[in-house]
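Recap quiz, item 2
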Amino acid sequence: MSFLNYRNYIPDLYINKITDLDFKQLYAEGYRLILTDLDNTLISYKETEPTPEIISFVRNLEAIGFEVFIISNSLKDRVSHFSSILGVDYVKFAKKPLKGGFKKAFKKLGHKYKKEEILYFGDQLMTDILGGKRMGLKTHLVKAIDRKTEKAVTRFNRFLEKIVLKRIYKKDRKAYDEKLKEYVLDVTRRD
Ligand SMILES: [Mg+2]
């Protein structure tokens, strides 16, 4: 049962911002698709449109050779609104951590990327990290842009997350220290 496997909640990397990585290097390593969550990963819940920083970030990724695709659990029009301004394709109401939304995304992308070519980004363990890891993707946990604006369901997920984090701490202290310790400190600081 992949939902019960604590390893599926350990991100490959925890980062401050999606813009922090060396994408030229990642392209050289063979990665081709940036698959990303929207809310609190690219913009906060307060914002409805891509910031100038996100627009230039995405244009830069495309210039390197990447394709960018948004996969959001939100069923709101803000996903299509945001994506169309940014000029990228999307799947909304993805139901992460279930696999259906990811499969829908791959279908929309014409199945042209292998899993080893995909980098996934999201701000939540229970949906993004679990979903990305279950799909076998390189999965990045991104520090939430603005936790204060999180919705009730997200807050509930954060509660479940604490239980998962305790389990990882017990089972694999090394992975916890390397990939989640900073995250826990950030979450505690903001609560
Ligand atoms: Mg999010």
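The longest helix spans residues 152-171.
Residues 6-190 form a domain with the Rossmann fold fold (CATH 3.40.50.1000).
End of item.
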